[in-house]
Amino acid sequence: MLFRRIVLCALLVGALAGLLVSAVQHWQAIPLIAAAEVFEGSADPAEPTLAATAHDHDHDHAGGDAHAHDAETWAPEDGGERHVWTAIANVLTAIGFGLVLVAAITTWEHLRGGPLASAGTGLVWGAAGWICVFGLPTLGLPPELPGSVAAPLGDRQGWWLLAATSGAAGLALLAFVRGPLRLAGIAVLLLPFAVGAPHLAGGPFAGYDIGIARQMEALAGSFAFATTIATAVQWLALGALSGLAVARWVRPALAELAPTP
């Protein structure tokens, strides 16, 4: 009963948050991506620099990267088809995050032994999730605009995993541990930056003509801001809805686990 309610709540919460963030992206992030793809298609890298070589590498080996554009890789058509698939991807991603949040809030309430879950406490959980999954990793690896070049995909994935894991462990130490040991959370949060994020020399647009590179840099700044807003909306919505869902539907099943006096 408890497991089924957690899964059903995660499905509902993820669907609502995924549709919400899709609407936000349609308004502010997708136009920037479309503008960058125009430059990406028309730009001719000025010379075969290290960045251009890495760009080719990414296209050859990063089939799962949203920014890779292999001619033989399937991609949705622009317009309605693309928006639909983007919304489906957002909903599925949000369901996965929602499952983690609902389970975490349920466990937290069970261990504390009181009715703690609510929209307000859910917002705090959502903010913590945003810091772990987006905020902290973005300080080392900013959101990548289509057409930008970057370090090998495996290196970026490895560093992102380190940053997200360190964020979760560091915040958990600061929030739940009492005494001097909690200060170790600060060191854990700083660990990925001591290791260093992977970057290529020359920057993400080093292989492009200077005029196009400057326009891409301007778009990249706006894209980073838009992505920050969209992900914050997604995580805060996930947190608030997860807190409400636990209080409304999971708590009764959780009460059945309590020992009868």
TrEMBL record:
Q: Which residues cross the membrane?
A: 84-104, 116-139, 159-176, 183-201, 221-247
Name the UniProt key words of this record, in alphabetical order.
Answer: Membrane, Transmembrane, Transmembrane helix
Which InterPro entries does this chain map to? CbtA_put
Tell me which Pfam families the record gives.
CbtA
Q: Which residues form a coiled coil?
A: none
State the name under which the record lists this protein: Cobalt transporter
4Fe-4S as a keyword of this entry, yes or no, is no
**What organism is the protein native to?**
Aromatoleum petrolei
Q: In its keyword annotation, does this UniProt entry include Membrane?
A: yes
Read off the lineage from the record: Bacteria, Pseudomonadati, Pseudomonadota, Betaproteobacteria, Rhodocyclales
